[in-house]
Amino acid sequence: MNITNFKWGCGNYRILVLDERHSTTFVKKMDLDPKEIFFLNMHTLTIYIFPLIKFILKKIMKRDPSIKNIKAVYLLSIIDAVNPSFIFSAIDNNKNYWCLKNHYPRKRVFLFQNALRGVTELKARERLYLDEKKFEVDHVFTMTEIEREWYIKSGLNVTQTHACGSIKSNEIDLSSGAQDSTLVYLLQYKHHDYVNPDQQSSRYLNERGEFLSYEEIYGKNIFVLRVLEDFCKKNSIEFKVFGRAKDDDTAAEECAYLRHLGFGHIDYIFKTTEVETYQYLDKTGFIVTLSSTLGHEMLSRGKPVFFWGIQHWAGKDQIFGYGQFGVRGEFWTIDLDLDSVGPLLSRFVAYTASDWSGFYQKYATVILPLDTKNIRFNQVLQRAMS
Predict the structure, then answer these.
(1) Domains annotated on the chain, with CATH
(2) What is the per-residue pLDDT for 356?
């Protein structure tokens, strides 16, 4: 489909990676020739270049009334210019990517999951497109078998879907050496108005399915931090907060957030690269998370992780194991009651290496299996691309 003669000067590449805010950087970890890949950061281009060429795209739309979305024209014109055989992107980047084969039936579209979401959110985001047969892709690579099964039940062919674990985590070597006894809480801070939290509602839901205010959410974060700090003091365990930041400016925002909640005195740490992040957490004694993908990745790497599923995101299965193992178990709970949480935490830090080996076999391999160096994944990918 050649919708425009406007030349971007990209040339022909075998693979086009549609990268929304760098969310598909895991493609660089695949066993592919980088010279054959054209990486396109659609978010950056949309901000800085799109306004300059808007008038060109409007002229194109006048010539072809069937195309009504300027951003869609923008995307399709780039695909024409790069002329790839394969198009890669993350599953949840942009709904326009789900429909590319409607315009380019001969190009092969591969979608990859780069963060855990769960089948509830999948139903909310993709069900309509699947039902209307608009979700046209060649292959979907999910992180978990549970999500793979959801796509199959929703209409995709079993040969189109593959569970491959976390491509990013799989690629990074497990750190060896002595582990410390630090308990690390994985902070899940996002850019929101925490100074005036009662002024806005969030995308998070409570157990009744109602939208929470940010005031309620931050109240839960205060509760979690207070409980963990007190628990570590009583048990002589060093307590740290691990941030999501990858640069000094974002780290400063997270520190300001902690100070606002009253926990500026707690040791805060962040790492600027993925390798440093995984290797640092590999050597920590214990990890506590609300529901993060990173927490699941560390469990798959054999780390002791406690899942405290008290924060419910709209359409997201926050409960450990998507609820298939119940709402509480050996190292997870949804409780806010200190009488039940306290004993769970005590048992959590007392588990032996043998205990965690058993947990890994029972839970981690089912939810998010570890594929060291992505050996199995790359074999599947090469077959799919042949």
Answers:
(1) 15-165+372-385 (3.40.50.2000), 172-367 (3.40.50.2000)
(2) 92
Residue closest to 194 by CA, chosen among 211, 229, 219, 224: 219
Res. 199 pLDDT band, cuts 50 70 90: low
pLDDT digits (tens, 9 = 90+) for 303-332: 999 999 876 544 455 677 777 788 889 999
CA distances to 127, 213, 217, 222, 369 from 200, in Å: 28, 6, 11, 19, 38
360 closest CA partner among 369, 352, 351: 369
Residues in the chain, total: 386
* C-alpha 292 chain-centroid distance: 8
* Phi, psi for residue 68 in degrees, rounded to 5: -115, -10
User: Most confidently modeled of 15-24, 206-215, 269-278, 357-366?
Assistant: 269-278
Alpha carbon separation from 148 to 14, 98, 301 (Å, rounded): 27, 16, 21
Binned at pLDDT 50, 70 and 90, residue 2 comes out as very low
Average pLDDT of the residues in 260-287:
94
User: What string of H, E and C letters represents the secondary structure of the chain?
Assistant: CCCCCCCCCCCCCCEEEEECCCCCHHHHHCCCCHHHEEEEEHHHHHHHCHHHHHHHHHHHHHHCCCCCCHHHHHHHHHHHHHCCCEEEEECCCCHHHHHHHHHCCCCEEEEECCCCCCHHHHHHHHHHHHHCCCCCCCEEEECCHHHHHHHHHCCCCHHHEEECCCHHHHHCCCCCCCCCCCEEEECCCCCCCCCCHHHCEEEEECCCCCEEEHHHHHHHHHHHHHHHHHHHHHCCCCEEEECCCCCHHHHHHHHHHHHHHCCCCCEEECCCCHHHHHHHHHCCCEEEECCCHHHHHHHHCCCCEEEECCCEECCCCCCHHHHCCCCCECCEECCCCHHHHHHHHHHHHHCCHHHHHHHHHHHHHHHCCCCHHHHHHHHHHHHHHC
